[in-house]
# Entry
Amino acid sequence: MHQEGTRLPNEPVLKQKHKKRPIKTLFLEADEDHVAYQDSTNRFMKLVYVHEGYDLTQPRHQLINPHYFTGNYPGTDNEELWTEVLDYIDANYQPEQVYLSGDGAKWIKNGAAFIPHCTFILDRFHLRKYCKRAAVGIAGLDRTLYQWVLPGQMKFIRDYFTVRFNDLTVTASQLQSLKQAEKYLTNNVSAIKDNGLTAYHGCSAEGHISHYLSRRLSSRPLGWSSAGAQGVARTRIFQLNGGNITRFLQAEQRQASKQAKVTKLDRRLHFK
# Structure
């Protein structure tokens, strides 16, 4: 099933041609699972999903018309992945504005540059994570840092780091955490502040990674082959997108049988 899974597309059903739907705001969310492979390396299994916002009338704030993309796309630009996402958007929507949320990884920011009318917004999960890192050695201060950085009060943040960097009681490991946090927070000022935009609903990418990928790929001490990891991830997302694996494989078999008959006929004609 591993090899079959690698062939499963992120777009499982060829829909009938329809008019692209104008929409004011479209949302993209992206993250990656860190998967252990049999060659003792760890590589990313990417996940991107497109949706029309959150249904705020539901208790769990379900996504409206989500569509998912996954794969172990190589490199940092991931042009193949973002081309798939853009093709899906172009086939279904005419958005005025696209918001892309994630942790600020280079491959995610590249998506914001690749998708037209797209603005990157740093998700609050990773913002809180780095505020905790910035507060290393001072219990409870992360909440204050979060309240400063979220609306863009960077003078307070810069003053804070100046004081900590000059504190002789800060250990070497704490200093390393502070430097990482300072770089992360100051390099993403506008992407952090845009969390306050009224049209933006937030980001649930971390939960999606945990539920749909990590639960099977990385929550246990397993070593995957490249085909195995890709096959499992694609299978889960194919079903999530409404695909029927049995029908897909049957269609592939029919196509292969048809192609074999054509090839056989061509050979007969060639030798006459």
Observations:
- The two ends are 41 Å apart (CA to CA).
- The chain is about 50% helix and 15% strand.
- The mean pLDDT is 86.
- Residues 247-272 form one domain.
